[in-house]
Amino acid sequence: MTQQDHNLYSGFRQHFPSDLNQPLMETDEGVIYCYGDAEQESSRLAGFMVSLGLKPGDRVTVQVPKSPTALWLYLACLRAGLVFHPLNSAYQRSELEYFLSNAAPSLVVCGSDAENTMSELVAEQGIPVLTLDADGQGSLTERSANYPADFDTVARAADDLAALLYSSGTTGRPKGIMLTHENLAANAQTLVEAWGFSADDCLLHALPIFHVHGLFVALGCVLMSGARMRWLPSFNSKAVMAALPDCTVMMGVPTYYTRLLEEAQFGREECRSLRLAISGSAPLLVEVFNAFRERTGHTILERYGMTETNMNTSNPLEGERKAGTVGLPLPGVEVRIADVQNQPLPIGEIGNLQVRGRNVFKGYWGMPEKTAEDFTEDGFFNTGDKGRVDEDGYVAIVGRAKDMIISGGLNVYPKEIEAFIDDLDGVSESAVIGVAHADFGEAVVAVVVPQSGCSAEPAQLIDAVKQNLANFKVPKKVFYVDELPRNTMGKVQKNVLRECYADCLSGGSH
Question: What is the pLDDT of residues 115-162, one digit of tens each?
Fold first, then answer.
């Protein structure tokens, strides 16, 4: 990468094998794609998008199933200097409406089943909508097929946007997180070194690619080291067990590891080639950490990151991996535990976890005041997490300042669900909390106060949420109460509710 060109793709390209016929990925159906496919197919897509009139800095909203072509599309956006805006494939119409109006994309790519909805939502703006399905087919593929297989990657400055991802706040309205080419390149380079990635590695990739973990962490490590992948459309225990003997590294959310441990046949034989198992996106239970080590002989490496920062800390590749911690600050990342005045606290004390480094995002899209609010005067980002650092420098996350729920590695913001439930007929008010779940780490539970004289039907309420919000936001259980517990200031005491319903999902369910 030259001093003038900080394009993330240029950084990846430097680490491609000299022989582009070397494999990049093998799908669950046994189809092998090489690095040359990544180069050529991303060229066609980049050239096609430029032909539509898209210019560097324009957003491309993408809500598609996981496929090799979806990866080529991400690389094409980088190469053309466009801003990649991925969306969870579970998002429904009301959610999409907000994202499209806020991100103001110049192109939308979606699954064919969502084409009509997307077209209706952007009709007034005249934004083109193209399709891409799980088999790699769709109008995007058809229309780009005859474009040249070479494309001159557009030079970008370090501070230029590469991606726009959304993460809600306590207001329930999602915030656009602006990630630059430098943010993503710096973090990928750091992780390759920290986790010992090389061209000899094969990563088991069962993660979604609309999320930091599967998109930037996993793909960044592979493409920045010339490694290869076993590419699975989603997590399935049997498929993972079949692919794992070919893999040297596995990345997953805690749910992946709990589900593997539920398989009686899973053990050392499946992990015979594995050198590293990494867990993130949600807290890993100490019991799972210990059970995995006992069953496989491998100690899971837990790390800590977030959409705004990518990865901040990691347990070491060589050295002690402490259960219940997220390890040490990564090279180039400063981590501190601070009080409400942003003053550092002594070792062992719990406070606000703050980070600073090249990995930290540029700011919130169109929200300069919120950006200023979440950064300290000396440039640290307030993560919203509560943490402590032990005498060895290991960081532990002890809670969240916000009420965010992490279910199966996905962020769920109670305010958004509460606002929807409160608007339903027969509901006076509601409180949404996260409750321990054996499979997902946490799951959504709603506590609802019905209006006087109205019947309480949990199944109807759950069904209404299911029809309007993504599946991971749907309450697993609904409890009806006469009133919500409040403090003297009138604020709902969610800590009381969490204690009251702590065991309501014991045993969990898939």
Answer: 999 999 999 999 999 999 999 999 999 999 999 999 999 999 999 999
Q: In sequence order, what DSSP letters do the residues of 443-482 get, joined into one string?
A: EEEEEEEEPTT----HHHHHHHHHHHS-GGGS-SEEEE-S
Domain over 300-400 is classified CATH 2.30.38.10: yes
pLDDT at position 495 is 85
CA dihedral 28, 33, 34, 39 (to 10 degrees): -130
In this structure, the strands spanning 202-205 and 228-231 are parallel
Q: What is the pLDDT of residues 278-292, one digit of tens each?
A: 999 877 888 899 999
Determine whether domain 405-500 maps to CATH 3.30.428.10: no
The pTM score is 0.86
Q: Would you put residue 67 in left (φ > 0), alpha (ψ -120 to 50) or beta?
A: beta
How far is 366 from 354, CA to CA, in rounded Å? 23
C-alpha closest to that of 327 among 490, 155, 195, 203: 195
**C-alpha distances in Å from residue 69, one per residue of 5, 10, 132, 138, 348:** 25, 19, 8, 10, 47
List pLDDT tens digits, range 459-489: 999 999 999 999 999 999 999 999 999 875 5
CATH number for the 8-184 domain, one of 3.30.420.40, 3.40.50.12780, 3.40.50.300, 3.60.21.10?
Answer: 3.40.50.12780
Distance of alpha carbon 150 from alpha carbon 225, whole angstroms: 22
- Residues 211, 220: Cα–Cα separation, whole Å: 13
